[in-house]
Specification:
Elements: E1 2-15, E2 19-26, E3 30-36, H1 43-46, E4 55-61, E5 70-77, H2 88-104, H3 112-124, H4 130-147, H5 154-161, H6 169-172, H7 176-194
Parallel strand pairs: 3-5
Antiparallel strand pairs: 1-2, 1-4, 2-3, 4-5
Length: 207
């Protein structure tokens, strides 16, 4: 059975001599792994299509068995999104978003609400300056965690941060440094609840 779907590329790894396995968060399938045959040797055919943060339209072969190998028949960049030339700061922030989805989402569970949250973030990120991008990450963190039934409180964040945390918009948005600090605290809160490490946290200090 061949299926058409749309999704955001979270990551890819080499598979054998010629192939990639890509983890894609899709509208219909949720988070799933896809085999992309000959992608490593057909560089011209797949140029720019397999990079993280891209929205792609895919057609894949599925045998109907959950979490079985899915083979990409065709993959095309969605022309409404262009996240292929992001600067270093935006790449770090987008990587954090991808890690959230990869860490929290269960394989092959469709979730329209989460897909819409991710779509909103990536639809505007390429046009934002650093301050606006940091605000977008904060908005994503709070909104996404709430969909999971998690609401970071001052008490919980203080326990994780080991210093008092005040949930005041004035303090959070005082400057770039305060935004980054708060993103890191919420990310650590998220790590605690997911049981998985968000590696992008360590790069936030480079912003």
């Amino acid at each position: 059975m061949n299926i058409n779907d749309t999704g955001f590329i979270l990551k890819k790894i080499e598979y054998g001599d010629y192939d990639f396995i890509a983890t894609i968060y899709t509208k219909k399938t949720g988070k799933a792994s896809f085999i992309i045959k000959n992608a490593r040797k057909s560089k011209k055919r797949f140029a720019g299509k397999l990079e993280p943060f891209n929205l792609v339209n895919i057609n894949f072969k599925h045998n109907g068995i959950v979490q079985s190998g899915k083979i990409i028949n065709d993959i095309q960049l969605n022309s409404d999104f262009n996240n292929t030339n992001l600067n270093k700061e935006l790449i770090i922030l987008c990587s954090l978003i991808n890690e959230y989805i990869d860490s929290f989402e269960i394989n092959e569970i469709q979730n329209h609400e989460t897909f819409n949250i991710v779509e909103i973030f990536f639809s505007k990120i390429s046009s934002l300056n650093l301050v606006s991008a940091l605000d977008a990450v904060l908005e994503f963190q709070i909104t996404y965690l709430q969909t999971l039934g998690l609401k970071p409180t001052s008490k919980e964040l203080t326990k994780i941060n080991k210093q008092k945390v005040e949930l005041s918009k004035v303090k959070i948005k005082a400057n770039i440094a305060s935004r980054i600090k708060f993103i890191k605290i919420i990310a650590k809160f998220s790590q605690f609840h997911s049981g998985k490490e968000l590696n992008s946290i360590q790069y936030l200090d480079l912003l």
